[in-house]
């Protein structure tokens, strides 16, 4: 798999709101598959498929602990892929310029 296709798998994984929620849930630390599934109204097999997509994209890792499968976020993978994309389409100076403008506008509008 080339790097373009590899990064595309990350964005395909991020396209689904359930998978994004799983990633958010994992930001506090690892969770068992059952704990993750209990947070959703969809079936456990559906959650398992979502976890498989996230694992294939390299966004989560799993480890076995006795009869449980624990999942954790691969923060560096997420940050690298999304960061590379953002720096290509939205260079830092553009982000900083917009932030400065927004801060200045908020300050001007602040009566205190």
From TrEMBL:
Occurrences of domain HTH arsR-type (ranges): 1-93
Superkingdom of source: Bacteria
Entry-linked Pfam families: HTH_20
One Gene Ontology MF term: DNA binding
Keywords associated with the record: DNA-binding, Transcription, Transcription regulation
Annotated protein name in UniProt: ArsR family transcriptional regulator
């Amino acid at each position: 798999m080339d790097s373009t296709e590899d990064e595309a798998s990350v964005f395909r994984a991020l396209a689904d709101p359930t998978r994004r929620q799983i990633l958010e849930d994992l930001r506090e630390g690892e969770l068992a598959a059952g704990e993750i599934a209990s947070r959703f109204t969809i079936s456990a097999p559906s959650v398992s498929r979502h976890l498989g997509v996230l694992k294939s994209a390299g966004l989560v890792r799993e480890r076995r602990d006795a009869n449980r499968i624990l999942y954790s976020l691969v923060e560096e993978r997420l940050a690298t892929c999304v960061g590379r994309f953002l720096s290509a389409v939205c260079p830092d100076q553009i982000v900083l310029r917009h932030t400065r403008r927004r801060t200045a506008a908020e300050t001007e509008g602040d009566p205190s």
